[in-house]
Amino acid sequence: MGIENNVKEILSELAAGNAFGEPVTLVAATKTRPKEEICRAVAAGIGDVGENRVQEFREKHGCVGGAREHFIGHLQTNKVKYVVGCYLIHSLDRDELAEAIAREAQKKHTVQDVLLQINIGREESKGGYPYEDGLSALARMAAYPSLRVRGFMAMLPLTDDEALLHRLAAAMRTLFDEAKKMSGDIAFLSMGMSGDWRLCLGHGANMIRLGTAIFGERS
């Protein structure tokens, strides 16, 4: 009963909301997880699932028991056609990708909801807009009527420097609050994974992406 218990405990803890009293959306990160495990998590109360890889997204699409499907991994422009139409793309990390998503969404006569990925730790190994470009990137997205920015996504760096992590998480909330003044569509700050989600909730994240905490360690 591991998955079911994990979901129940996490949802119970999230019921109080984040540090600002806002409701929190739990996205189950399903990378490498078999459909059977995902369906168990959904049956236990998970309403949102997020996939990192386009190939896995395609294989599992529509097989997740009615949960909303998110794409949370790095996205190449030539793979955009496979994920446009999902509930939310978390990883819009460059203008070239925005153009590709907008073009595909227009073709499909839809408006695609996205989050701007911010490289909050300035890590060379991660994509994303620089923190100081977050609001100007948001402003540029207004050029695409088939794209709707709903907020930001960030991944905190792997470090033992707790003070740094608190500082970076707080900075993301500041960016989120500034963006809300610019656009009424801004609703989500997707920040927090299995190792740091409580810290992120403490600084106002309202969407977290958990894999190991739900499904256990990958085999």
Can you describe this structure?
It is a single chain. The chain has 219 residues and is an alpha/beta fold. It has a single domain (2-15, 23-215), classed as TIM Barrel. It has 9 helices and 8 strands. The longest helix has 21 residues, at 162-182. It starts with a helix and ends with a helix. The model has no long low-confidence stretch (mean pLDDT 96).
List the helices and strands and how they pair.
Blueprint: H1 2-14, E1 25-29, H2 35-43, E2 48-51, H3 54-60, E3 68-71, H4 80-83, E4 88-92, H5 95-107, E5 112-118, H6 134-140, E6 147-154, H7 162-182, E7 188-191, H8 197-202, E8 207-210, H9 212-215
Parallel strand pairs: 1-2, 1-8, 2-3, 3-4, 4-5, 5-6, 6-7
Helix pairs in contact: 6-7
CATH topology: TIM Barrel
Q: Can you count the helices?
A: 9
Number of domains: 1
Poorly predicted tracts of residues: none
Condensed summary:
The chain has 219 residues and is α/β, with parallel strands linked by helices. It has nine helices and eight strands. It has one domain: Alanine racemase (TIM Barrel, Alpha-Beta Barrel), CATH 3.20.20.10.
